[in-house]
Design the sequence.
């Protein structure tokens, strides 16, 4: 016979369940127990995916740097070797080893920050108070230019201890400055938003506009303006000044360009102003970079959500398809069963007319079921009434007497029950 | 209004204290380093004079020559004979460079020479730095569950310590493990591989690198004729990454500990930002957490409230 799922009224409700639950899962984000387990597993996957992405990013960067820089480097190397040979040939009394000895000493002196080129008498020290102040600043902000670095053992040990205490200290300071910047910015945007609300502009547009304004204004104040000043004072090109600003404010700090590091006569207040600019600029850059980080996070979240939605849709689609398949199967089997029933009833009627005993006790229970399902479908078209059994196609049932009627009465409550369930 | 006023006062106090700290550092550095520098200056002057005396070279041509040599040296090119034939920009070294760029260490021993290289570095850094921060904080958040919450709850259940004491003990142990595993052991390895480095130099290098200061006076793998140079540089990269992660972990554990002991609210500093959904096992029961969440919501705008640039929590 058609499977137990036909008999069991619960199965009727089972088919509709998947539809509801999958759409619910894609909307709500409440962490239930199983959601949590799934979420933590997915997060490790996300982390490893992001990690692989970073490695890929690094490799791509390496390849690009190699392609850009290696030719230039070879050219430089060639140039300096030619220089050396020229020098040696012009000044024949100097031999190879002497020259190399000199160069080695000079290079290590440079590493220690002493520039032997030019006269050394009026050369200012790298460790006078203002330069040491600047160095201490570069250590604490973790920029670490490296044009000045301690060479004594005592200096290095002190540097370690100094940094251990100073970096968190600077971190708190940066947080404080950043907070103040944020408050000022928040108040400014609130005023701007009030203005725009009068003009009936939507909230999201205002937010986007204020972010853009923040970035532009900050760039102007902390990047473009200082770059122009450096270009003028230090004599760098525009690109080099911009490069210096970005490398400093992201605390990378290569040290190939350092404001206040060349031989020029600087104004007295130049270095402290530079230091103050670094402090505020770092706070601004922290804000910008965390914004970029947030965007990346939002993008990854959106991608995850979209992937999750696609998965949910796919699952929903499969559930629908299987439910419909079940439904069709059920209808088919019901029709088959119904025809069989009609045949059986015709046969019993004919046999009763012929005087043979039919067994109405056997059929009623099953008839109940069949009538249930067909009646359920017909219920939608016609109002409930006992004559509905006419639809079965056997007018004989009505005229048959008590038995069908008994079956009739017994049937209707069950029909109601199933429709209620569905 | 008074709390806003108070925060301004605290901030000015902080700035003044910070300036005083810098001045103190400047004074100490100056006293320690200046005599050494003077001596070196005198030595190099003597060397130059000796060289000029015994040769037919005149001062100006020597100056020119030295200037060119130093210019080349700034870009990492040496004219000394046993300088490595290997380039500073082969794939492994470029990878190392990209890594120092992206983790903001920035040694500076090799820097982009061409204009295009400089422009590319700007964009690469602007995108790569937040990217790296994102990865590191994501990893650290997952690690926190393993390393911090698990052992602490275990500590409390088995040994039955007070929650505050448990966090303090755990933090001390974590600090010890990190110092041993990421400073002492690598320093021994480095001092063994790099024959010009002493143990102190190696520890100094590890510290300067893992704090992302990156002065650049010591860079591993720059010795001419280094065996397995590419492999060495790549393993240093891995060390840098993992070490940075551990430093953030320690910092975060410290921040949480300070939160719990009430230090951050005393100084009106930003609290440890933790995503509420991900924080499944708080160190202390829900009472404390609710308090912190309420205070969290009172913070001003998001983009500006970070502990430090290097520890972007969110």
Sequence:
């Amino acid at each position: 016979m058609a499977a137990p799922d036909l008999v069991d009224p619960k199965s009727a409700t089972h088919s509709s369940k998947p539809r509801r639950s999958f759409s619910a899962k894609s909307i709500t984000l409440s962490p239930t127990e199983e959601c949590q387990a799934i979420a933590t597993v997915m997060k490790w996957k996300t982390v490893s995916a992001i990690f692989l992405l970073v490695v890929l990013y690094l490799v791509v960067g390496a390849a690009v740097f190699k392609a850009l820089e290696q030719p230039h480097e070879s050219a430089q190397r060639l140039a300096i070797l030619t220089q050396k040979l020229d020098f040696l040939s012009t000044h024949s009394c100097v031999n190879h080893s002497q020259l190399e000895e000199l160069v080695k000493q000079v290079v290590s002196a440079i590493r220690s920050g002493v520039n032997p080129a030019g006269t050394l008498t009026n050369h200012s020290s790298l460790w006078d108070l203002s330069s040491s102040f600047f160095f201490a600043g570069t250590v604490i902000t973790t920029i670490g230019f490296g044009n000045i670095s301690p060479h004594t053992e005592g200096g290095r040990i002190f540097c370690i201890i100094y940094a251990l205490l100073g970096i968190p200290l600077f971190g708190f300071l940066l947080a404080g400055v950043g907070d103040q910047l944020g408050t000022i910015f928040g108040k400014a945007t609130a005023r701007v938003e009030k203005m725009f609300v009068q003009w009936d502009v939507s909230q999201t547009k205002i937010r986007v506009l204020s972010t853009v304004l923040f970035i532009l204004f900050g760039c102007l104040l902390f990047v473009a303006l200082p770059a122009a000043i450096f270009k003028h004072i230090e004599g760098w090109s525009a690109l080099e000044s911009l490069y210096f600003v970005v490398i400093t404010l992201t605390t990378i700090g290569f040290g190939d360009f350092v404001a206040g590091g060349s031989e020029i006569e600087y104004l007295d207040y130049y270095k402290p102003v530079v230091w103050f600019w670094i402090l505020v600029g770092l706070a601004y850059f922290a804000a910008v970079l965390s914004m970029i980080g947030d965007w990346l996070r939002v993008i990854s979240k959106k991608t995850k959500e979209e992937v999750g939605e696609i998965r949910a849709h796919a699952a929903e689609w499969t559930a629908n398809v299987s439910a419909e398949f079940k439904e069709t199967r059920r209808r088919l089997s019901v029709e088959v069963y119904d025809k069989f029933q009609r045949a059986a009833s015709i046969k019993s009627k004919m046999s009763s007319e012929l005087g043979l005993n039919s067994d109405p006790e056997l059929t009623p229970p099953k008839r109940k079921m069949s009538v249930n399902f067909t009646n359920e479908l017909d219920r939608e078209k016609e109002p409930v009434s006992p004559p509905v059994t006419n639809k079965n196609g056997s007018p004989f049932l009505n005229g048959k007497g008590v038995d069908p009627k008994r079956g009739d009465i017994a049937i209707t409550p069950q029909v109601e029950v199933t429709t209620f369930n569905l | 209004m008074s709390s806003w006023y108070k925060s301004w006062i605290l901030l000015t106090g902080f700035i003044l204290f910070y300036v005083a700290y810098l001045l103190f550092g400047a004074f100490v550095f100056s006293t320690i380093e200046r005599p050494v520098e003077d001596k070196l200056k005198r030595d190099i002057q003597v060397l130059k004079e000796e060289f000029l005396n015994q040769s037919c070279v005149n001062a100006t041509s020597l100056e020119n020559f030295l200037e060119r040599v130093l210019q080349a040296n700034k870009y990492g090119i040496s004219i000394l004979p046993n300088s490595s034939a290997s380039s500073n920009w082969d794939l492994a070294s470029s990878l190392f460079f990209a890594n120092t760029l992206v983790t903001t260490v920035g040694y500076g021993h090799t820097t982009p020479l061409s204009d295009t290289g400089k422009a590319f570095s700007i964009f690469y850094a602007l995108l790569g730095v937040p990217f790296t921060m994102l990865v590191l904080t994501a990893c650290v958040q997952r690690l926190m569950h393993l390393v911090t919450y698990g052992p602490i709850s275990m500590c409390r259940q088995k040994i039955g310590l007070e929650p505050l004491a448990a966090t303090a003990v755990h933090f001390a142990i974590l600090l010890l493990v990190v110092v041993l595993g990421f400073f002492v052991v690598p320093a021994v390895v480095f001092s063994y591989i790099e024959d010009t480095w002493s143990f102190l130099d190696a520890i100094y290098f590890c510290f300067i690198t893992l704090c992302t200061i990156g002065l650049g006076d010591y860079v591993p793998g720059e010795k001419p004729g280094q065996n397995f140079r590419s492999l060495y540089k790549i393993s240093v990269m891995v060390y840098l990454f993992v070490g940075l992660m551990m430093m953030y972990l320690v910092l975060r554990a410290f921040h949480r500990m300070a939160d719990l002991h009430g230090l951050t609210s005393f100084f009106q500093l930003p609290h440890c930002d933790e995503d509420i959904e991900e924080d499944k096992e708080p160190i202390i029961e829900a009472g404390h957490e609710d308090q912190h969440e309420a205070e969290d919501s009172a913070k001003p705008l998001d983009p500006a409230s970070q502990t430090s640039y290097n520890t972007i929590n969110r």
